[in-house]
Amino acid sequence: MLSWSWLSRWPLILVFLILAAFFPSSVDCLAIPFFDFESRDNVCESLHLCTLECLRTVPCLAVHPDGKVLQLCPFFLNDYGARSFPFTQEHFESINLEDEIIKLRLRSIDSPIFLGELLQCDSLSQIGNENQSIPTSDLDGMPVGLYLCYDGFKEGFMADLQDIHQKCLDKGRKFEIVLVPLPFGRHYNPKSFCKRVRRYALKDSRSSSWWTFPFNDKICRTLWRIFHCYTEDQLIILPHAGRIGDLWGRHVASFYGIDAYPFTRDVIVERKVRDLRSVTLGQLLGDTFMSDLHNKNVLLYLDDPTCFFEDNSIFSSLNVVQREFQVKYPDVKVVFVPFEPILSVSKRQLNKMGWHLLPPELGESIMKHIFMIEAYPDEGVRSTLVAFDKDGMILSRSAYNRLPRNSTSPASLFDDTLGAEILNEMKDYIY
Questions:
Q1: Is the bond preceding residue 86 a cis peptide, omega within 30 degrees?
Q2: Which domain holds residue 23?
Q3: 317 and 254: one domain?
Q4: Is omega for the bond preceding 239 within 30 degrees of 0, making it cis?
Q5: What are the two backbone dihedrals, phi and then psi, of residue 104, each rounded to the nearest 5 degrees?
C-alpha cells in the first residue's frame, strides 16, 4: 500500500497517476499500475479528491518534502519542462517575468532582442542543405520571421508562409525564415516531430532556403509560452535595421499580404496615418465652411441628431464644457456633422452653443475618409469626436475619451494619438 507518509520522506517527488497499464520499462520513475486501485485511491483521498476527479483532472502532482502539494495542474510541465523545478509559484512567476521582458524587448528600439540571444545559438543551418550554415548575427540587419510551427503540416500556416516568402523573393525584398518546431501541443516525440516538420516543409522547394537550429527544449518551451502557440502556428517578426519586432506577424501577413512587408503592425499604422493626413480639414469641408475655422483647433463631432434629446455621453460632456471653451479658449471650435437632417429646434440650440453646423450630406464622405470603413464593413457610421490641429491635420479619431471631467482645459484633446488609436483598433479585426 502506498502511504502519504511514505511519499513525504522523499526529497521532492512527482506523483504520476497512471491512466495506462504501466509506464514503459525505459522510464526511470515510480509508477502506480492501473489495476492497483487501492494505492491510487489512497493518493486521491489524501488530497481530499474523489477518484474520478483525480483521474480526470490531476494526472500530475508536485509534492514538497513537508507533504505540501505545490502543483496540481499538469500544464506546468508542458509550459516549463525541466525548468519547472522546484515547482513553486514564486519560481514560475520569476520565469514569467523573464518572458515579459523578452516581449518588451521585441517591441523596443533602445534594447532590441536579436536572433542569437533569443535562440541562444551562434549559427543556423539550412533545412534544404544542413551543410549550409550562417552565423545568426548575419541576419540581425534584415527582416527575419521566426516561424513557430505548432502543427504546420496539417492545419497550420506553412503553405501560406511559403507563398508570402516567394512573393518577397519575387519583388526583391529580403525576408529570412527561421523554422522552430514546437512538439509540445500534442506531446509528440521532439526528435521525430522535428524530422517530420522539416520533411513536410521540403515537399515544397520554396522552403529549402529556410533556416533552423538544433532542437533546444528550454528555448522552444520559452517561445511556446511567450507567443502562446497553444493551438496554431505563429510568425514572429524580429527587430531589424531600426524597426521594432511584432508578435502578430502571422495575422498581419494573412490580413494584408505582401503590402504589409515586413509584416509588422507599425508598417500598417504608418501607412494609415500618412493616408489620413494627406487630406486636411479644409479639403474635407471646402472653403465655404472653413472661413470661421481658419487657424483654429477644431473638434469635429459626428452624431445622430437624436443626441440632443438623449443622455448622450459625447453631447452631454461637450455641452458641459462648451460655455467655458467660448470664454477661455476661443481658439477651440466645435463643428457638428449630423448623420441626417435635424429639426429647427435643434438648430436653434446649436446656435446658442456656438457650434458650427454642417449639412448631413458631408457626413458620409467625412466618415469614409476619417475611418477605415473597409475594415468595418458591418459597423457603418458611428458617433465620435475627431480632433484637428490649427493646420487642419487630424490628431485623433476618438478625442471623446479625453473630454475634460474635473478640468475644462482642452489641451489633452489635441494630443497626437492617431497612431496609437489605429494600432489599438487593429486588434478588433486583424486577430
A1: yes
A2: 4-73
A3: no
A4: no
A5: -65, -40
Q: What contacts 71, CB < 8 A, 6 or more positions away?
A: 60, 61, 62, 84, 87
Is residue 184 a contact partner of residue 223, using CB atoms and an 8 Å limit? no
Q: Is 310 left (phi over 0), alpha (psi -120 to 50) or beta?
A: beta
Single residue among 220, 241, 273 that ends a domain in this structure = 273
Q: pLDDT tens for residues 95-143?
A: 889 989 999 998 888 888 999 999 999 999 999 888 899 999 999 889 9
Report the distance separating Cα 245 and Cα 107, nearest Å. Answer: 5
Does pLDDT of 60 surpass 90?
Answer: no
Cell of 226: 511567450
Query: Which residues, other chains included, contact 301 with Cβ-Cβ below 8 Å and sequence gap of 6+?
Result: 314, 315, 318, 334, 335, 336, 337, 355, 384, 385, 386
Which residues, including other chains, have CB under 8 Å from residue 236's CB and lie 6 or more apart?
Answer: 106, 145, 146, 148, 223, 227, 245, 246, 247, 249
For 361, the grid coordinates are 450630406
Residue burial 176-188, b: 16+ Cβ < 10 Å; e: rest: bbbbbbbbbeeeb
Sequence-distant (6+) residues with CB within 8 A of 186 are: 151
* Triad 65, 66, 71: Cα angle to 5°: 75
Residues 233 and 110 in one domain: yes
Closest CA to 251 of 234, 272, 266, 268: 234
CA-CA-CA-CA torsion sign (166, 172, 173, 176): positive
Q: Which of 273, 297, 312 is the last residue of a domain?
A: 273
Look at the pTM and tell me if it is higher than 0.85. no
pLDDT at residue 42 greater than cutoff 60: yes
**Bridge pairing between strands 144-149 and 234-237:** antiparallel
Which 3 state secondary structure label does DSSP give 338? strand
Strand ranges for 150-296 from DSSP E: 176-181, 211-212, 234-237
407: in domain = yes
Residue 374's identity, in one-letter code, is: E
Q: Say whether both 391 and 258 belong to one domain.
A: no
Q: What is the CA radius of gyration of the chain?
A: 30
> Are 414 and 315 in the same domain?
yes
Residues contacting residue 233 through CB under 8 Å, at least 6 positions apart? 147, 148, 149, 150, 151, 152, 156, 157, 158, 250
At a CB cut-off of 8 Å and minimum separation 6, what does 311 contact?
none
E strand spans, 187-327: 211-212, 234-237, 297-303
